[in-house]
Amino acid sequence: MADNPKFGPNAQTPEQRAYVLQQIKAANPQLVRNATPYAHRLYGRYIAGELSWDEVCQLRDAPQVVPGIHAPI
Predict the structure, then answer these.
(1) Chain-centre distance for alpha carbon 30
(2) Geometric angle at alpha carbon 66, from 64 and 71, rounded to 5°
(3) What is the per-residue pLDDT for 66?
(4) CA atoms within 13 A on the CB side of 64
(5) With the C-alpha atoms ordered 37, 49, 12, 60, is the resulting torsion angle positive or negative?
(6) What is the DSSP letter of 13?
(7) What is the pLDDT of residue 64?
(8) What's the CA gap between 17 and 44, in Å, rounded?
(9) Could you tell me which residues come within 8 angstroms of residue 23 by beta carbon, excluding any fewer than 6 positions away?
(10) In this structure, what DSSP letter does residue 9 have?
(11) pLDDT tens for each residue of 13-71
């Protein structure tokens, strides 16, 4: 099976991505302390191979749209 360019050479399998995420969390404990349930779902999608780490960071850091609440004009 060919490497997926969406992930680095050490993050090709779910097990490898889980290890990478573990290392990221160890290096930046605030990532865990401030993680919302939404962020944890994104991390799970990264491990599953649905999202790259860049996509996780973009989605995690984007303003969340809450239905029924309008943004200020």
Answers:
(1) 14
(2) 80
(3) 67
(4) 7
(5) negative
(6) S
(7) 74
(8) 10
(9) none
(10) T
(11) 999 999 999 999 999 998 888 899 999 999 999 999 999 999 999 999 888 776 666 65
pLDDT at 18: 97
Q: Distance between CA 12 and CA 19 in Å, rounded?
A: 11
* Tally of residues, the chain: 73
Give, for 17, the enclosing helix (H) or strand (E): helix 14-27
- Does this model's pTM top 0.85? My answer is no
DSSP string spanning 34-72? Answer: T--HHHHHHHHHHHHTSS-HHHHHHHHHSPPP-TT-PPP
User: What is the pLDDT at residue 63?
Assistant: 82
Q: State the amino acid at position 72 in one-letter form.
A: P
At CB < 8 A and 24+ separation, what contacts does 8-17 make?
11/53, 14/47, 14/48, 14/49, 17/46, 17/47, 17/49
Q: Is 28 helix (H, G, I), strand (E, B) or coil?
A: coil
